[in-house]
Specification:
- The protein has a domain of 325 residues: 3-Layer(aba) Sandwich (Rossmann fold).
- The chain is flat and about 205 Å long.
- Helix 6 runs antiparallel to helix 20.
- 75% of the residues lie in helices and 7% in strands.
- 15% of the residues are buried.
- The chain is of the alpha/beta class.
- It contains 23 helices and 18 strands.
Length: 1264
């Protein structure tokens, strides 16, 4: 990865927009450059801009968002950063920007805008923050952490890595190289090992829990199932025969009832026709009247029209008289209005002549005079204002001249204080440089003294720490022994609690007890359900028996009622026939009275009349009373039969519902018995001791149920007591196991804690021993450092004395007093500041004196000019006053003449008023003319309409006379005597439609009932024939129903037994398949567990430290090899290597001293820099994930190096540059500025708080 260019705007102290193109000169010719500038000027800001463009964060600020942005320069409204970079020969552009609302410095921060694009094509690859960050990491192979460790290197951080202890180095190495993945792998292996071990144990338990039927038991189940299937086939045939017979019985009863009901409905239809005979007759009578309705309606319509026209003719006659009177009045009003209009026109003409000839010329002269008066008055006022302003200006000039004279005197006095001011100003810059060197010497001496005191304090502290270390080491050994004894005691308690068992065996027993507890609870729940089901079954059985008895009784009663109904119905038919004959005979009573012995009958011609006396004795009313009585009795029998039939139907429905409930309860009983047997086997209980009673008349399998008679409640109570005693005993045993498990868990936790304490004690003792060795070496190093620091302080004192003497001699030549040699830096700076300020005031006073003399000459000339203007302006004022008086006299005379002629009236107002009066007269005249015309038109219209109505009236009278004659002729030819009888026979349209619908409905109903009665009769005869052929008897239906119910119940019982046997066989088959599957799974799990156990032994650990330490060791070996390769190019003397122990510790080989081994903490500052730089470059290669790093930026503290070490460092950088890398170094060391010709200079702007780059880096924007 190579940085091609950088563009940024308003980042930290670097205000405005800048661009650095690393592909152009001078970076193109020399890839080693320095970023220089004073402290705090913004050198590191350039590196921050690179991070910001790529990753939207910097090493110093990790969060830059809409709510906070501390990078944006104060007082600006926007910031941006853009980097062009190259990866594997392809160039990209990364962009970031953020602004405030309306680009105002105090506006709210807006969302950041980002882009990642291909440089050549301009295609935008990402425009969202998360997407862009992920894509940058994917393209470069560097996340933010790796980027800041591979391209932006800080030597101080890696010196910390070099001098860190083993544990700190492990953490740094994991953080820098991302080797935390090995820790996660080790933890995952440990976790997977535990999970597979648990899964293997679970498979073994599942395999042990699989139970299969023996071969004998399976053969017995198969034989029982075959026998039950044969029995079920026989019962099914019997059931089918019974179902056919019962269906025939039900059909016969239904068809008989249907036939009887159809006959009754036919009689009702016939009676309805007789009841509506009057309405039907009305419909028949209306048919002739309906033919005369059109003639009658036309006659009435003509009569109504005759009345309307007669009324309209009378009304129009009255309207004609009124219109003629209105026309006469309007003609008179119009003549008067025309005369008034002529008067108004003459008055308007006289007014206009007066205005045009006299008034208007006077008004024009008045307007001109008033304008001249205003102009003259304005000129006079302006001249007076100018005179006042000129007087004020002249007074101000006099005052200013006096002030300038006084200021010139003060400036002359100030200039006399420094007669050699110009030469002294030129010498001041040299004194500043010498005083800065004095201050720097003083600061270095202070720093050396502070370091000297710190080293002495460190020596004392190190000695004290060494003594404390020895005391702590002794105490740690004692703690280690105590922890070992406690661990042994806890282990003994665990062994005693287990009583020879393994720890997992106790947990398995407890878990099995928990599983059994669920089974016991389920067993008790099943028993309670079974007991409730038994009580329901007992109630349903009793209800079924009661219904059967009541059904038989009601069926017998219904048969009796039906026989009685048939007898009564036959009697009613006989009486009805007799009554019909009697009524016919009675209808011939008139003819019988005419019969005479020996004379022929008028009807039959017979001359013998033997039964005349008998016919005369017939009494029809007795027969009718007998018929009515029989009808009432027949209706009562019908109601009684329907009530019995309804009650019987309800009983049949109740019986069916009860049978369904019984079937359902028996099915549930079978399921509960099967589940009960399964729970007994699961819990290992005796099937005889805990057997449930069966609610039917045979045992199921003799194991889980028993057959009892009478009331089973005492047996169920006893079983309930035994069951609850068993559950209570099992719960007590489970409680004991729970206490043991809890106690074991506490002891195991205690054991783990004590083991951890022992390990910590051992580790602590080992660490204290190592720390003692380190403290001894550190004390030796501190002593050497104290001696070196004393020599540095002495050299600084000598240099400071020589420079101070030279500065004093130069100050004496100019008569300036310098502070004493022992003065502080603030006194020197204050003296320089005061001297510089005085000289600045001297130069300023010299410039001001020249300027003020020039100002005096200008003021004198201005005073003469103003005096001349005042004289000229006074003459103009007097002339304006004379002209104003003449204009006022002329204006007064014109006003008097105008008032005498026209008063104070307004010309336009008078003209407007005259025009209004004339217009009103014209409007009145025009309106009257219009009304006169309208009245004339109305009169003509009324006359025309009246003539038309008279003509229509004549034709209507003729037509009415003709239609009245036609109507009387039709009425005479009809069956109606007059118009009143015709009106009585007519029906309204609604009544006619209603009667027609009634007739249609009655006819349709009669035909339907006749067809239904015939159909029911044929159906009943067909069923009777089918019953005779099959030998069915309707009276046996109740008995057959009971037999069908018992047979169906027996079939369900056999089906349930067969289902239970088949279910047991199916479950056994499933268990066999499960056993085979579990065996295969167990073999595969054993193979996988063996592999995982081997892997766990190699790298698995709970905290992940086993594999992590191994991987970090390999990584450190790789890092050392890379660092030694860099050291060979930088300096050939030293090599790095790992210590022989497992800890991640480093040591240095000095190849110039026979590969002597040295601790890294014994290296000098320059040596430490070279080794640290080699480590930094090695880590850069290590974390770059195979991405070539072609650009390096070193934010390095070179100021701590002496000249020799600095030369070595610069040579190393030259070597790196020669290998093809572009290297940028941040520093303010003068020696580096001399060695590195290409520099990016950051200049601070004094007093502004911002900095600038050189002008060639100022971004000018894109060309137009």
């Amino acid at each position: 990865m190579k940085i091609l260019s950088l563009r940024f705007k308003n980042i930290n102290s670097l205000k405005d927009e800048w661009k650095i193109d690393f592909t152009q000169s001078p970076f193109k010719e020399n890839g080693l450059f320095a970023i220089t500038g004073p402290t705090g000027s913004g050198k590191t800001t350039i590196l921050d801009a690179i991070c910001l463009a790529l990753y939207h964060r910097t090493p110093r600020l990790s969060v830059i968002s809409k709510s906070t942005n501390e990078l944006m320069t104060r007082g600006t409204g926007s910031a941006l950063a853009e980097v062009e970079f190259e990866v594997k020969g392809k160039a990209y552009r990364a962009f970031w920007s953020q602004r405030r609302s309306r680009d105002l410095p105090d506006g709210n921060l807006q969302d950041a805008q980002v882009e990642l694009a291909e440089l050549e094509s301009g295609v935008i690859l990402a425009s969202q923050i998360k997407q862009k960050t992920e894509l940058v990491e994917s393209i470069t192979g560097l996340d933010f952490a790796r980027f800041t460790r591979s391209m932006l290197l800080s030597q101080g951080d890696f010196a910390a890595f070099l001098n860190a202890n083993a544990n700190e180095r492990a953490e740094l190495l994991e953080e820098l190289t991302g080797t935390e993945i090995y820790s996660l792998i080790s933890e995952r292996v440990h976790l997977e090992f535990g999970e597979q071990k648990h899964a293997l144990n679970l498979l073994k338990m599942q395999l042990d829990s699989v139970k299969l039927l023996s071969a004998e038991a399976r053969d017995e189940k198969l034989a029982n199932a075959l026998a039950l299937k044969e029995s079920l086939a026989q019962k099914q045939q019997q059931l089918l025969a019974l179902v056919d017979c019962l269906k025939w019985c039900d059909a016969m009863q239904a068809k008989t009832l249907e036939t009887e009901q159809s006959l009754l409905r036919l009689q009702d239809a016939e009676q309805a026709i007789r009841d509506e005979q009057y309405q039907l007759q009305r419909l028949a009578d209306s048919e002739p009247a309906q033919l005369l309705v059109p003639l009658f309606e036309r006659k009435q319509q003509l009569e109504q029209q005759h009345q309307i026209l007669d009324k309209q003719v009378a009304e129009l006659g009255l309207q004609l008289v009124g219109a003629q009177q209105t026309l006469k009045e309007l003609s008179e009003q119009q003549s008067a209005a025309a005369a008034a209009l002529n008067i108004e026109k003459q008055a308007q003409q006289a007014l206009n002549h007066l205005i045009d000839t006299q008034v208007q010329p006077l008004d024009q002269k008045l307007t001109q005079s008033r304008f001249q008066l205003t102009q003259c008055q304005q000129a006079l006022d302006k001249s007076r204002v100018i005179e006042h302003e000129l007087n004020n200006e002249l007074s101000a000039i006099q005052v200013h001249k006096q002030d300038l004279t006084l200021e010139n005197q003060a400036l002359s006095s100030l200039l006399s204080q420094y007669p050699q001011g110009q030469a002294l100003s030129e010498q001041l810059s040299g004194w500043k440089t010498q005083i800065a060197q004095l201050i720097e010497f003083e600061q270095q001496r202070g720093e050396f003294e502070i370091q000297h005191r710190q080293l002495q304090q460190s020596s004392v502290r190190c000695t004290q720490n060494l003594e404390v270390n020895q005391q702590q080491l002794t105490l740690a050994q004692q703690v280690k022994i105590t922890a070992s004894h406690l661990l042994a005691a806890t282990t003994a308690q665990i062994t005693e609690l287990l009583s020879g068992r393994e720890r997992h065996q106790l947990q398995q027993e407890y878990q099995q007890g928990l599983d059994s507890q669920n089974g016991r609870n389920e067993l008790l729940k099943t028993f309670e359900q079974y007991r409730q089901l038994y009580e329901i079954w007992h109630e349903l059985t009793q209800k079924k028996a009661d219904n059967a008895e009541q059904t038989i009784v009601l069926a017998n009663e219904l048969a009796k009622v039906r026989l009685q109904w048939r007898d009564k119905n036959q009697q009613l038919k006989d009486v009805t026939g007799l009554l019909s004959q009697e009524k016919h005979i009675s209808s011939l009573a008139a003819e019988r009275t005419k019969l005479q012995p020996g004379e022929p009958c008028a009807l039959c011609g017979s001359v013998e009349h033997p039964l005349v006396s008998e016919y005369q004795g017939i009494n029809v009313s007795d027969t009718e009373l007998r018929q009515q009585k029989l009808q009432q009795e027949l209706e009562q029998l019908k109601l009684a039969g329907e009530g019995l039939n309804l009650t019987l139907s309800k009983l049949e429905l109740s019986e069916q519902h009860t049978q369904q409930q019984l079937t359902h309860s028996i099915g549930e009983q079978h399921q509960l018995l099967s589940h009960w047997q399964f729970l007994l086997e699961q819990l290992g209980l005796s099937a005889t001791e805990f057997a449930l009673p069966a609610a039917w008349n045979r045992a199921n399998d003799g194991k889980s149920s028993i057959v009892v008679g009478g009331n089973e409640t005492p047996y169920l109570d006893a079983l309930d007591s035994r069951l609850r005693i068993f559950i209570a005993k099992a719960a007590g045993e489970q409680q004991r196991l729970s206490e043991c498990v809890t106690q074991l868990s506490g002891l195991q936790n205690k054991e783990a804690t004590e083991l951890k304490a022992l390990q910590q004690a051992e580790s602590h003792a080992q660490g204290l021993a190592s720390a003692g060795e380190i403290l001894s070496a550190e004390l030796r190093n501190i002593t050497q450092s104290i001696e070196e620091q004393t020599r540095r302080i002495n050299r600084l004192d000598e240099q400071q004395q020589a420079l101070s003497q030279h500065l004093i001699s130069e100050c004496d030549q100019f008569g300036v007093n310098l502070p004493t040699i022992k003065s502080s830096a603030s006194e020197y700076l204050q003296w320089l500041s005061e001297l510089s300020a005085n000289l600045q005031q001297w130069r300023l006073a010299q410039q001001q004196l020249t300027q003020k003399l020039q100002q005096l000459e200008v003021l004198q000339q201005s005073s003469s000019n103003i005096s001349q203007q005042l004289t000229k302006n006074h003459t103009q004022i007097e002339a304006d006053k004379q002209q104003l008086m003449a204009i006022e006299a002329e204006l007064k005379a014109l006003n008097k003449t105008r008032f005498d002629c026209f008063g104070d009236k307004d010309i336009e107002h008078e003209k407007t008023q005259a025009e209004i009066n004339k217009q009103q007269a014209e409007n009145v005249n025009a309106a009257l003319v219009s009304k006169q015309l309208e009245a004339s038109t109305l009169e003509n219209t009324i006359k025309t309409r009246l003539d038309s109505l008279n003509e229509q009236f004549t034709h209507l009278v003729t037509s009415l006379t003709e239609h009245q004659q036609h109507w009387h002729n039709a009425l005479d030819a009809s069956p109606f005597s007059d118009e009143t009888s015709f009106s009585a026979a007519c029906l309204t349209q609604a009544d006619r439609q209603a009667l027609q619908a009634l007739k249609s409905e009655l006819d349709t109903r009669l035909h339907q009932q006749q067809a239904l009665a015939q159909q029911a009769k044929l159906g009943l005869e067909k069923l009777q024939q089918q019953g005779q052929l099959a030998g069915y008897q309707l009276r046996l239906a109740p008995k057959l129903r009971i037999e069908h119910s018992e047979l169906e119940q027996l079939q369900q019982q056999l089906t349930q037994e067969l289902w239970q046997i088949e279910r047991v066989l199916a479950e056994d088959g499933e268990q066999q398949a499960t056993q085979g599957s579990l065996v295969s799974q167990l073999e595969a799990a054993k193979q996988s567990f063996d592999d995982m156990a081997y892997l766990h032994a190699l790298i698995g650990s709970q905290k992940g430290d086993k594999f992590r330490k191994f991987a970090q060791g390999l990584t450190l070996d790789h890092l050392v090899a890379l660092a030694n390769r860099q050291l060979g190019r930088l300096h050939g003397r030293y090599l790095l290597e790992r210590k022989g122990s497992d800890a991640l510790e480093l040591q240095v080989l000095d190849t110039w001293q026979g590969d002597a081994v040295r601790d890294t903490r014994t290296l000098s500052g320059g040596e430490s820099f070279l080794v640290s730089l080699a480590l930094a470059l090695a880590l850069s290669d290590l974390v770059s994930h195979k991405t070539s790093i072609d650009s390096l930026f070193l934010d390095e503290g070179f100021g701590t190096l002496d000249s020799e070490t600095l030369d070595t460092a610069l040579d190393a950088l030259d070597n790196l540059n020669a290998s093809g890398k572009m290297i940028g170094v941040i520093s303010h060391i003068e020696a580096m500025k001399e060695r590195i010709s290409v520099q990016i200079k950051v200049n601070k702007m004094n007093g502004l708080g911002v900095s600038r780059l050189q002008s060639q880096y100022q971004y000018q924007g894109l060309p137009d």
